[in-house]
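Notes from the 1:1 (GR / supervisor)

We went over the backlog. Supervisor wanted to see one worked example end to end before approving the batch request, so GR pasted a single chain during the call. The sequence is below; no edits were made to it. Supervisor asked that the structure be written out right there so they could see what the output format looks like.
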Amino acid sequence: MIDSKAVAPAAGTRPVAIVIGLDCITGLQTARLLARRGVPVVGIASNPRHFCARTRVCREILQADTTGEELLLTLERLAGRFAEPPVLFPCTDNSVRLLSAGRGRLAGYRLALPAHDVVEMLIEKPSMERYAREHGFRVPKTVEIERRQDLESAIGDLRFPCVLKPAAKDARWVSHTSQKAFEVADADSLLARYDACAGWSDRFIVQEWIEGPESALYSCNVYFSSDAEPLASFVARKIRQWPPSTGTSALGVECRADEVCEETLRLFRSVGYRGLGYVEMKFDERSGHYYLIEPNVGRPTGRSAIAEAGGVELLYTMYCDLAGLPLPEGRTQTFGTAKWIYLRHDLQAAFVAWKRGELGLKEWWSSMRGAKAYAVFSATDPLPFAFDTLNALGQAAQRLVQARARTPRIEATPAALRVRER
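Structure output shown during the call:
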């Protein structure tokens, strides 16, 4: 770990923002958005060689395991070294849970989270699903799985297709796959998929699939003050995602969907929420209803950047609220045409959709037009994009070499040799 003494007190009295999980897209975007507003940023990354950690917007980048005790020890060592208590921006579910459980050790920091039992209830998918049903939210039918026998017993009551997810996406799951979930078409596929990833999590959920295209996936980002009042909100929907069906947003656009916003606010108000929150919902074309898919708790998301592009300063609102500074004026969505794109992932998603006959070139070009906020690309901070592109090219070359190595060689038979000799 880099020596924490390397972090000097911030210039002036403006609190430092500490971005925890700089080595992910969300961490990179958070650091850039805050730095753009003149906020001094310190990053903490498990892997400082990750392409996102190549950013130059941070005053310092510290190395620490953001999935375990080392994170809390690092923050304890840093406490008191700043002129003002820093504002913490955890950027992964693991770091949110760690900070929430260890908040008693973080007296020298500013942190916006609801009560710990609320954090755990919302992050754990089975408990969230039960709470949502009890409070009148529409949610897909969900079954909790701890053993294969549980899955075998539940299959008869499921309607396919379904999605298999971990009950909570922790470090073990992330170490095996970048996917949030796996779509399965039938009972045999579900059992096979479970067998393949049974060791990646202690508990799983199987959730019935809500019919509809990727563009039927909506989200609402919010920030709630310590008084449990929403100070900013922003609604968007996906256009494409990667991987297809169960991935994360590759291209999104702001939109107006009042029911999505209202249900998001109702969910968070009902638990006395505080901090950043996010809810994903899907519109079911058959029933005409929105279904709550999952929330994200206490952290920025990939959609935070599209809120900023649309004029809603979501992250800066949190910073100012915690730092006791005047709130920014840009906190109300005006429903323009702001877009957000992870260029590499969107090109991959568009290519797959084109091969399937689901996307034409004219439609693709139309979706790409207009002002956009970029997930990785930045003309003033180019290294993350350069390293991401180089990594992708290297992985593609490696897959090509491996594919050629697996191609069986056809050996010439004696008869074929005789033909050649003639």
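Supervisor's comment: Confidence is low (pLDDT under 50) at residues 1-11, 416-422.
Batch request approved.
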